[in-house]
Each structure stands twice: as structure tokens, then as C-alpha cells.
Amino acid sequence: FWGSQFWNSTETWYTTDPDFTPCFEQTALVWTPCAFYWVFVIFDFYYLKASLDRNIPWNKLNVSKALVNLGLLVITALDLIMALIKKGGDSELPLYDVDVWGPIIKFATFLLLFIFIPLNRKYGVQTTGCQFIFWFLLTVLSIPRCRTEVRLDAERQKVLDSQQPTEQDFSWEEYQFVSFFVFFTFTCIMLILNCFADGMPEQSKYKRGENEVPELSASFLSRITYQWFDRMALKGYRNPLEEKDLWDLRPQDSCSEVMPIFAHHWNQNVRKNYKGRARVEPKAQFSNGHVTFENPHGEKNGRKKGMASIMPPIYRSFGGVFLFGALMKLFTDVLTFAQPQVLSLIIGFVETQETDPQPEWKGIMFAVLLFVLAAAQTFILGQYFHRMFIVGLRIRTALINAIYRKALRISNSTKKESTVGEIVNLMAVDAQRFMELTTYLNMIWSAPLQIGLALYFLWQQLGPSVLAGLAVMIILIPVNGVIASRIKTYQIRQMKYKDERVKLMNEVLSGIKVLKLYAWEPSFEKQV
């Protein structure tokens, strides 16, 4: 099936001149990027559906992408045809399955990428991360075969130079050499082209002006490195920033986009709280920081009240981005503990050089791997916090909007139950707490995972001594519980004081003329 051995540790690891087998280079190193894109292509479909823009005009960038991608399709189809011609039929060269399935898999992947070029143009998608990562992986993983092909060609030239010159057809090995380097050149070009974002769309749901945030038109590479923010940082370094220097809010984060989604799920949640279907629309009420509603069946069945939780609508509205951020957090935690393991390999490599010398390339590989892991963790962690702050901002926007709308619609009788201070605190304090909580909410599962991994790796280094640190953590759990309980009690009491203070300030400002006439300012000042 493969045509050669798939993996040979003697050639790859236990040697001073490491190299992969030809089979591994033509299968695993090529099929891995293809498998990655087929698995994560769902994100590209999601970007098409969620895009607020339409119709990017044809320009040099997307035309170049289409032409180079078309060239890859041609060279891949030619690989399949030449394999059938050169190695099929009466040829002495055996035709392996990898000679057929390799080009087919690559052709299917390049065809899918080629289809996305006009689709991205039509739906206004200027850049996609999945395609950039695919071309990056394909380029990097093609480098080992590039080295192999150069060495094999040099060996063939030596053999040909030692023989008498004869006229012969274009051999299969020569075709593979030329075909691969054409393929590798096109792959590098596609990687470079995907480092840039496409042009501005002609149609957009929202007006895109000169003051829009550059993140909207930034490429994937610019977004993960935050290169689009350099201009603002440089401006702030030279002069103090003013309000006019700030960019406009992203349309996806605006209230006009966030609130309809939240309101839809909120209305569904309210309706599900009714056990029976009623023709009369239930009257929702706002009281003591909760939304309640009357029984729609009328007074004859009794006035039963149900409670509508705010959490299910939040899950359904913003859960997708939050779960994606949680996945990034998982990768970050794994990379955090992978770095000490690589550092341990480096230490072991240095310590054993005198007693059991190892090839120098292993130490270089460990050092490069440590840098790659640290850089990957930095990139992923930055994107994690960025997304969590965006989710928190959207939750805060939705809650403030919902509370404000409800405050405008409640009846006069309900207004007597809910003070102005309570409503203001809900919008100013409680909604902000949701935003602050979102960033660190993943610590509920991340902290136990980090503790478990840390104890496991420390046990390998220290043995039973780790139990002392574990005992301290266990002892501190009830202490932290008591402290958190007291903090919660004080916060509840503090919120009541804030409500009373805001209510009193509202009364003072409303009746400031009376206070001035009777000279009551000192007494009310003491009360406040």
C-alpha cells in the first residue's frame, strides 16, 4: 500500500543525520493539513453565514489566489495521471495505493479551497484562520520532503555522471522532483497571499467609514499578533489619547446586534416557565432584582408566580463564543505543563552528554520546541482573553438594555416595590460583575485541572513530599469558604446601603429647592 516503510526510528531518531521515510513524508506530512482543514471547515461555513458584508470586488489578491489554487489543482491532477501512465499497465514500476490516494486527497482539498474563494468574495469574508493555518501547516510539513528530494536528485546526478550519456525518456523520479517543487512553490505563494486580508466589501449592513476599528479589515495573521493595534499604541506613545482618537465599536458588539438575539432567547425562556398555554399574554414584573410574572390563568386559579432565570438566555445567546474560548483555555493549560516537560528533556540532554553523548540536533530540536510551545501559548492565551472580554461586554450590553427597557415598561404599582437605586445598581454594578466574572469563569474547571496536572508531574519529581503541599491546599479550602461567605454577606449588605443611598440622592435632587429653603443640607448630608 505505502511503497516503503511508514516509520523507521533508526533513520529518524537514533541517528546523527535524521530523516523521515519517503512514505511518511508523502502521507502523514501531507494528509495531516488536509485532515485539519476538513475537520475545521465548519468554521469557514460559519463565517459565511455570520458575515454582515457582501460582494468583495475582484482584485489582484483574490485573483492571484484563484490562479495559484487552480495551478495546484492542475499539478495534483497531473500527478495522478502520470502515476497511472508511468507506473500502471505494463510498466516495471509498481503502482502503490498511495500514488493514487495521495493526489486524490490533495485534489479534493484544493478543490474545496478553490470553491471558498468566490464564496468568501460573495459573502464579504476578508480573511479566514482555517485556510491560513492549512497553508502554514502544508508549507512547514513539506520542508522535510524538500530536503529529501534535493538529496535524492544529487545522488541521481552522481550516478548519471558516472555512466555513459544515453538518450532516455523522462523518468518517474525526475517527474516527482519537478512536480514536488512546483507544488511547494505554489504552496509558499498561497501562504504569503493568505497573510493579507481581501479588499473592502461593496455592500455592508452597517456603514464602514474611515474611523472603523482596523480589526474588521485585518488579516488572520494580523489579528493573532494584534498588529492592527500598533497604530493606536504608537499614537498613544507619542501623545495622550483623546476620545476622538478612538475607533468605532464593532457592529457585531453593538446593542443593535446583541439585543435581538438575547431578547429572542429571553422571550422563549419566559414562555417555557408557564406550565399551560394561555391566550392571555403574561404580565412580567420587575422586583428585587428579578423578573417575575403573574399567572395568566386569572385570579380564580390563584396568583402563582414563577421565576424566569437569566442564565439560560445568556447560555444560548453567547455560549458558542464562550465554549470556543474554553477550548482555547484547555489548550493553554496543556501547553503550560508541556513546557516544563520539554525543559526537563533539555536538562537531561545536557546532563547525559558526558556519560552517554547524544546527537547535537536533539538539543537544538528541544530548544526550538520550547520556543514554539511558549509562543503558541502566548498567542492562544491572548486570543482567549480577547474573546472572553468580548463575551463579557456583550452580556453586559444585553443585561443593561433589558433592565432599562423593563424599567420603562413597569407599572406604577411595581415602581413602588423597586426603587430607583435598585434599578441603577442593577445596570451599573451587577451587569458589570457579569462582565468581570466571564473572564475567569473557566477557572471552575481549569483550576482543578491545573492542580491535578501539577500534582502528577511534581509527584514524579518529588515523590510523597507533594502530599504536604496538597494537605495545605485541602486545609485552606474551608478557610477560603468562610472568607468567601463573609465577603458575600458584606457585599449584600453593601448593596442595600448603595440602594438606599441612591434612593436618598434621587429624593435630594428632586426636592433640592425645599432643602435649600429649609436649610436641611447638613442633616441630609449626614444621612447620605
TrEMBL record:
**Could you state a single Gene Ontology molecular function term?**
ATP binding
Instruction: Tell me which UniProt keywords the record has, alphabetically.
Output: ATP-binding, Membrane, Nucleotide-binding, Repeat, Transmembrane, Transmembrane helix, Transport
Q: Does the keyword Membrane apply?
A: yes
The record's GO CC annotations read: endomembrane system; membrane
Which residue numbers delimit the ABC transmembrane type-1 domain? 323-528
Principal location: membrane
Top-rank taxon: Eukaryota
Against CDD domains, the record matches this protein to: ABC_6TM_MRP1_2_3_6_D1_like
What topology does it adopt in the membrane? Multi-pass membrane protein
What Pfam families has UniProt attached to this entry? ABC_membrane, TMD0_ABC
Residue stretches in coiled coil: none
Transmembrane regions listed in the UniProt entry: 28-47, 67-85, 100-117, 124-143, 177-197, 313-331, 364-386, 440-459, 465-487
State the protein's name. Answer: Multidrug-resistance associated protein 1
Read off the lineage from the record.
Eukaryota, Metazoa, Ecdysozoa, Arthropoda, Hexapoda
This chain is encoded by the gene named: mrp1
